[in-house]
Amino acid sequence: MDVILDVDTGVDDALALLLALRAPDVNVRAITCVDGNVDVDSVVTNTLAVLDAARAPQIPVARGCPQPLAAERIHAQQVHGCDGLGGVRLADPGREPVEAHAVEVLRRTLLDSAKPLTVVTLAPLTNVAVLLTCYPELADRIDRMVVMGGSAGFGGNDSVAAEFNLLHDPEAADIVFRSGVPITMYGLDAFYEVTVDTETAHGLSGSTDPAGALAGSLLLAQAQRFATREVTIGDAGAVAAAIWPEHIDTDPHHVRIELHGAHTRGSTVVDQRARRGILAGRASGAHNARVVWSVDEAALRETFLTAVSRHAQPVSTVA
Amino acid sequence: MDVILDVDTGVDDALALLLALRAPDVNVRAITCVDGNVDVDSVVTNTLAVLDAARAPQIPVARGCPQPLAAERIHAQQVHGCDGLGGVRLADPGREPVEAHAVEVLRRTLLDSAKPLTVVTLAPLTNVAVLLTCYPELADRIDRMVVMGGSAGFGGNDSVAAEFNLLHDPEAADIVFRSGVPITMYGLDAFYEVTVDTETAHGLSGSTDPAGALAGSLLLAQAQRFATREVTIGDAGAVAAAIWPEHIDTDPHHVRIELHGAHTRGSTVVDQRARRGILAGRASGAHNARVVWSVDEAALRETFLTAVSRHAQPVSTVA
Amino acid sequence: MDVILDVDTGVDDALALLLALRAPDVNVRAITCVDGNVDVDSVVTNTLAVLDAARAPQIPVARGCPQPLAAERIHAQQVHGCDGLGGVRLADPGREPVEAHAVEVLRRTLLDSAKPLTVVTLAPLTNVAVLLTCYPELADRIDRMVVMGGSAGFGGNDSVAAEFNLLHDPEAADIVFRSGVPITMYGLDAFYEVTVDTETAHGLSGSTDPAGALAGSLLLAQAQRFATREVTIGDAGAVAAAIWPEHIDTDPHHVRIELHGAHTRGSTVVDQRARRGILAGRASGAHNARVVWSVDEAALRETFLTAVSRHAQPVSTVA
Amino acid sequence: MDVILDVDTGVDDALALLLALRAPDVNVRAITCVDGNVDVDSVVTNTLAVLDAARAPQIPVARGCPQPLAAERIHAQQVHGCDGLGGVRLADPGREPVEAHAVEVLRRTLLDSAKPLTVVTLAPLTNVAVLLTCYPELADRIDRMVVMGGSAGFGGNDSVAAEFNLLHDPEAADIVFRSGVPITMYGLDAFYEVTVDTETAHGLSGSTDPAGALAGSLLLAQAQRFATREVTIGDAGAVAAAIWPEHIDTDPHHVRIELHGAHTRGSTVVDQRARRGILAGRASGAHNARVVWSVDEAALRETFLTAVSRHAQPVSTVA
Ligand SMILES: [Ca+2]
Ligand SMILES: [Ca+2]
Ligand SMILES: [Ca+2]
Ligand SMILES: [Ca+2]
Description:
12 helices; binds calcium ion
């Protein structure tokens, strides 16, 4: 699977990057950075540092929009720490971002590919929204977009009704959800489900695969910050869902983004009436997204754990 | 239990009235009518006719607001038929409504009662909102308000996100939910759960209790109109929930009414974060309503069926 | 002219009361009080005290809604002082309000009148909106409603786009403007125009008519509070406009109240396209209000000054 | 003056282009096209055809965003005709647009210029908003942006409160007005003021300057379409205002774009309180735009007429 990742790295974006780098048969074609958890320059630095730490091959990393469209900026440093990596210190990156803007990198990568690509967005949708506003014809070059964002029945996290990524740039989300791109919405209904316990994280942190070791350290750092025994893999779950769709349950729905509510701005409005027997006749609007209602939590954890330390060195058994 | 019912009769309001009239230890102190399923004059006529048909004692029935506050009017004749009773023809009522406006009847009934009363609202909240705007001090005279309205995790029925009663007058709902009155929100999460099958309805329609017989006829008429074997008792469930709270599961929440959304106007915004472990610290706002998340469907049906034909004549066994 | 006044007294409501009490051929049938500049209990006390000070005949004064409909409360004590009368101390009132609620007094006064009445509203429109929600048929009993409120081309005062009375209860304003009652909108385009200078106010304060003397004192107190030489007569201008329409310039327009804007909530949206030549064909909506675009400032001031001290004692000329 | 024009050509955009091409000391560095009056491909074609007709030198013309950000699309073919040029048929253009997207051309032109440029926008602000979202640091490369759009005291044209360009993409307008770029808002308060009568237009249409001749023909066509004797020069007024600021009256204001109103979406909310004596203390927000409140209509017309046929051939006087 050839994939573009759009990120605001972020602890769980880091986990997601590590998974995508190690997952069998996954080819990361480009990584685009956007304002979100932290400012875009920190996102770029964090992303490059994660690639270095995982000894990843050269992959284009591009700096994108440093601010949302019409929304006021919010950041999420209470979740990810001041630097966005939860306090895990990585070496200054040795590699550099490409010169072109993320929107331009998205455009070229989609055009250069022989076949439509999978795009996984783990961040506010500003970059993708600008792409689709400037070049709506590129919707056809996207095979599927797995969006970490929104909420169907769970309620919000950053506000009472809205999830962080979409609340950070509701207009961008609206543009993407109206674009015609086939969307899989991996929202809060799934996001917090896939967790790793501290014992497992500790084991992982000792992996001889540097990706696994870093994943373990990041998970342990979050466990410590939130004083909890179970840590969600967050964005990494969305990557897992893109790779192993057999582990998620989805239904197609008409989904709109509320832009104008006093309490509901940035929320995903999922028309559930089609599933409600007597109300089915009142459902309106074409299905524009598959909503992930639930996941096989154990299967996604296992695939994540197995993949992320796949390059572990065999233990040398010396006499 | 002394109770005031606020209605927009309506098939399921009729079922609710019949239940309240027959339920043991329930004393209906007043019935107030409001614009909703049908226009308020039809609501008054239907309500009086149901009381007649059930051979109810004299109970004050008052005409209330003929239109919502700031909202455009919507009716629900596709659900309840042109006359609001789903085509079941009742004799013209022999009794009359009281002269005073519903808001005045609410006020006097609350003031005249030695102890705070239970109010069950089965309709748009215009009457109650006007009461609490004119006389906010009467909030203390309401022991509990069971509101049939809203939706927590179910989505909407009349719009993608909103339930009919609240969408019909969102501003009224906002006033009530901010009033300080202790609210039990019996919304769509419960509303469609309690059903009666056509066989049972058929048996009920032959009851020698005229209340039971009418209930059976109304259920059969809805079954026929919607070509379904299971018919919800709807508003009657809210009355049952008020009488037998042991059959419902509730949690306290901060609930606000969205007035300004393009897709979410009239929806109930329930802050679920307090129940979400890691998000508990982000919940905001005082608990102002107990949300009915689920019901003991079988128990509520049985209590309804038993009560509504309670005055059935014993079969005379002649030699 | 028989008139009902709806007030939130308030310095300039006091001026308006004094004008209405003294204007020739004006008969004040009732005064209804509402939450606005100050809380409704202070409004009642201030109103009664003004009637006492002016030695007014018995006029029913009724306490009305103590809070707006769906809006959060705002008060205007920075304009009117803590007590609402700008620091002018009046004796505790000797008279009492009527027992009935303002909405009930509005209803009965309209019904008891042989012919439709003029209603002048100088405050948030909560009382009138509740009246017209409960009894929309009473719109026919109102010959004309002169509304002090809104703004056509002036911009707002309490917010960037909205005038205080309408911003205090936008939903009430929406109800009134959609009610079918013929409205004259005396908004900010006129409100600040009619002024009295301190010299004239000083002369007035020495009037032997207690109404004139009080008016003079109130004007002087405002001049001192705002350190200005010219003081607007404010609400009194709306009463003057109702009595002497020959001194105002109006045009009929379609006017709506914005309920949902982030910057424009509570503003009056006046369709000016009908007056714009090339755009006339795009105007939409029936004319529901006459907008006061300008006033004959000098004429309104003179009529105000002449009327308010009309009961001055002739100077006794002793030999 | 070096200038970039952003257009949705459109009859009056054509007039504006002709003026900019002929105005002394004006150097058009680039023309960027955007969805607006007509679809962006027609805008490109019309723009190139106007340049051809005026025998303009080579100027980069770039195709931009084919749709607004979050708003539904509206077009204005009732004003500009199906082709956008009011029925005036031009030869198919001989020149081609540049390959790069308008946003990229804006970026490069700003970066390539030794000093900050003037940008005149005559269309929905999508292109500029995308530029400033992707590259907010380029705000410093814009000396001044003259925005044809909005309305301060005039009311709306395409809706009751909003002007067409801003209503077509309110979120884009919001981005631009919050960007820090110094804005001169040439809105409806000025837009319809500068007119040419049919007699003058007829004279112009016979000019030996092809620019003047085309301008005359376009004006005559509009006069015929709307059956009027006076035709506004519209967008050309904004170009004239940019070139000859001595002919416009402006005041600095805090201006916000309303995104959320039911009646006011897309309107410019101008804080006028600073100019309102007693209200000055309530004004809030930094001045982010100079609002054109009025224009010297005669002077702008004359400068337009003189400039647009500046290349007229001297009459050859043959013996
Ligand atoms: Ca992320
Ligand atoms: Ca009902
Ligand atoms: Ca007042
Ligand atoms: Ca244009």
